[in-house]
Amino acid sequence: xxxxxxxxxxxxxxxxxxxxxxxxxxxxxxxxxxxxxxxxxxxxxxxxxxxxxxxxxxxxxxxxxxxxxxxxxxxxxxxxxxxxxxxxxxxxxxxxxxxxxxxxxxxxxxxxxxxxxxxxxxxxxxxxxxxxxxxxxxxxxxxxxxxxxxxxxxxxxxxxxxxxxxxxxxxxxxxxxxxxxxxxxxxxxxxxxxxxxxxxxxxxxxxxxxxxxxxxxxxxxxxxxxxxxxxxxxxxxxxxxxxxxxxxxxxxxxxxxxxxxxxxxxxxxxxxxxxxxxxxxxxxxxxxxxxxxxxxxxxxxxxxxxxxxxxxxxxxxxxxxxxxxxxxxxxxxxxxxxxxxxxxxxxxxxxxxxxxxxxxxxxxxxxxxxxxxxxxxxxxxxxxxxxxxxxxxxxxxxxxxxxxxx
Amino acid sequence: xxxxxxxxxxxxxxxxxxxxxxxxxxxxxxxxxxxxxxxxxxxxxxxxxxxxxxxxxxxxxxxxxxxxxxxxxxxxxxxxxxxxxxxxxxxxxxxxxxxxxxxxxxxxxxxxxxxxxxxxxxxxxxxxxxxxxxxxxxxxxxxxxxxxxxxxxxxxxxxxxxxxxxxxxxxxxxxxxxxxxxxxxxxxxxxxxxxxxxxxxxxxxxxxxxxxxxxxxxxxxxxxxxxxxxxxxxxxxxxxxxxxxxxxxxxxxxxxxxxxxxxxxxxxxxxxxxxxxxxxxxxxxxxxxxxxxxxxxxxxxxxxxxxxxxxxxxxxxxxxxxxxxxxxxxxxxxxxxxxxxxxxxxxxxxxxxxxxxxxxxxxxxxxxxxxxxxxxxxxxxxxxxxxxxxxxxxxxxxxxxxxxxx
Lengths: 406, 406
Hints:
The structure is a homodimer.
Chain A: H1 3-7, E1 8-17, E2 20-21, E3 26-34, E4 37-41, H2 46-49, H3 55-67, E5 70-74, H4 77-80, H5 89-101, E6 105-109, H6 126-143, E7 150-155, H7 169-177, H8 179-193, E8 198-203, H9 208-219, E9 226-233, H10 240-251, E10 257-264, H11 289-307, E11 312-317, H12 341-353, E12 359-362, E13 368-374, E14 376-382, E15 385-391, E16 395-403
Parallel strand pairs in A: 1-16, 4-5, 4-11, 5-6, 7-8, 8-9, 9-10, 10-11
Antiparallel strand pairs in A: 1-2, 1-13, 3-12, 3-14, 14-15
Helix pairs in contact in A: 6-7, 6-8, 7-8, 10-11, 11-12
Protein name (chains A, B): Beta-xylanase
InterPro entries (chains A, B): GH, GH10, GH10_dom
Enzyme class (chains A, B): hydrolase
């Protein structure tokens, strides 16, 4: 299936003003947003959103806002509440609002995970750990409701009870409870705290293990809204075939799929024998011209592949700027703030090939114009009067827009 | 924990005859069987059991019976019923009885599997495949009840719905139903057909995937009697640490564990890059002197490791004689019928270190003798009078034996 077939619509737009169709008039239509979530983490903008940004932050924000309509913000328990009872709520809420005010969909990541969790959990008995985990979920989801209504509720459950790199409170309770009761506990808490929220199960394990987990969770009657698939490709681009086969395996459950964490490098690849990516520690991991050309090509191929599958509704890139996780050159922007070819390549898709720029057309005798555009938000203007409208479904659709003067 | 601590007992045996304790008399105690199931496949003895054995078969049977007290017989659907409606019941029943008459515990393998399944299933719609799968289970379990009361009900569910080497009826229905409904269907059928039977879930996948599957199955309320773990080690012995860690992960569910399929080579190892062992096809795979020494060592280490874990109740070796699956030199006996060092080494454990040979002792004034023996079946004799007894529990136990003349 071609991407446009189910991601775009043939729109017949009837433009009116004061109840009268605007016949034979020049109007300008422009896309304002995509229905598809083109996301990226926004971890670097906490200072900026809290009034302590640098000039470099401002420039990076401009580049960020030029590409993305969705943001993932960090709620790692160990960072968010390093001291019990002193959560970083105010700063994160300001950050979330900064993005929300700019029309971005905000997601919190993650509410339960065994890595980067709070050390003080280990001072508690298991029963108490479970109780504060539930309370923590309810607290964050309540405090951020209306600003953040999308959450990675629990992360990497496949290995959660057998994670053995270091002791931590979450592995302890997951080992004791079992995976499915753990998922049930955190999803019940999340659903109760914010019934309107979109709740994700997220994992990096793309093997049959995640399938088995999902099937067990669904059989147990736990409602999952979205399946999150990570795709950190530090060891090389998956390619179209593997990507589509992976999506197909997880699309069988009839749930929307979000690619929640994607990385593609513009430097040398991590050796294939590394199993836990965190084990690869090198002093410097430079971006290279050849790497940047390869990355730009792979970014385009990967986004095209994801959009070609109807089940995929969102894609979050794991860091716009180099020097993030592992120091890997995985950004679309170099450490010095200059965009790589991948930035331009992706921009050419999101705001180019898949975007309707301001386009002037003449309405017919019944006030109609026709255009083809990606699902999303639009604006039509004529002589200083405007109307907003959305294109929600693919195929041939008819939409009405009643212009008003501002 | 030492093996004897929970696999053997300190027995105080009171011997009597005609209701009177046999005081101050010489009696001979001898072990007759192990409670632990030391199993092996018996695929090579179908002809012999059906009266068409060769002299070589007779010799192999003698070696086989010298080691093993449990047998696994083949019920691969494609071999058992290659033509719909003409199952190989009579020959397999004769084989099962041949082993049962010799006091061996007989297990059937497997009732549902996507590999070596019946090709004619592919001519049927999915609903019909599911129906005949259920009927097939009920037929075999009813026909063999009382002779075979232990079954690998379903094999390799982790990859069942995503198996893509070739089309087959079982993958089709598992993909449509999902893994857990598939397991429920076959276990319900098996339980109904023979409520006394011991029912196994069996897999080769020792990763978190099998854990996730098991947790989903148990959460769904499906009763599994025994977890089957395969351990074909064509690519090298796992070693004690990995073996114990694997058992620990699966022992968490509180179910007995059977090592259902074990292979250790006495020739060169399969290269590590082979993922599906069936892909390794070579014209000749010889046993070697160095390989045989290594195998004997590893066999002893592996059996000691399994017996050192209280959850493990059975171990089935995947072929006593070379030239079986993949032509690999995995047997304890060479293709020419001569035993390898591994045969003797294992015999020295099962019928040596872990065995009470006929042992003469003098009873005390109350007719008692004391000995330490592995859990299992025993016989005591005095002056041509005999009694059988079993040692069922570890620790200090008291047992009574009333001698009778034959």
